[in-house]
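Components:
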Amino acid sequence: NAGVTQTPKFRVLKTGQSMTLLCAQDMNHEYMYWYRQDPGMGLRLIHYSVGEGTTAKGEVPDGYNVSRLKKQNFLLGLESAAPSQTSVYFCASSYIPGELFFGEGSRLTVL
Amino acid sequence: GEDVEQSLFLSVREGDSSVINCTYTDSSSTYLYWYKQEPGAGLQLLTYIFSNMDMKQDQRLTVLLNKKDKHLSLRIADTQTGDSAIYFCAETLISGGSYIPTFGRGTSLIVHP
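Structure:
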């Protein structure tokens, strides 16, 4: 049972490039979330989904887009990366809101 | 998460008790959570407490909830070096009909011999 898997784990981008982070969960969870973690800022919610085909904005959605075409996958896209998006990104899923299962994180550096 | 407040650092000696404090804002939160993050890893759920409880004990962990003051604490008895990590308090807020887990900034626990 893999739980929550994020790919890639590391990525370096140049300003203006685009990329997609993939989150996959095998627990049949309805809820999925994307957070970013920055030093001293804790976890901030970017976007979330309460079920297949649905997405909603979190606290810091600007510059990101998401899709939930399949229940098990939640994609986070950066259309035009900026240095301010350098961060560690965490995906999480849950059956019950609050009891989250996290991936190991994706470290993104934008030069 | 500005809605959940935690102190940023706590340093304790091995074998002592650690107490990590948290204040939250939404009195309607049904569940309150503590997560642990070890270096280079994601967060793992450590324990949680229902809002109708005052205390929950799980081996070395004791969670205390004061609903009147919206204060949550996590006590780790006999703290070990392996307990060194960042501890996050979290509540679940209701926004637009959805339940949104909201985290504090995390408390870095440093355990020294």
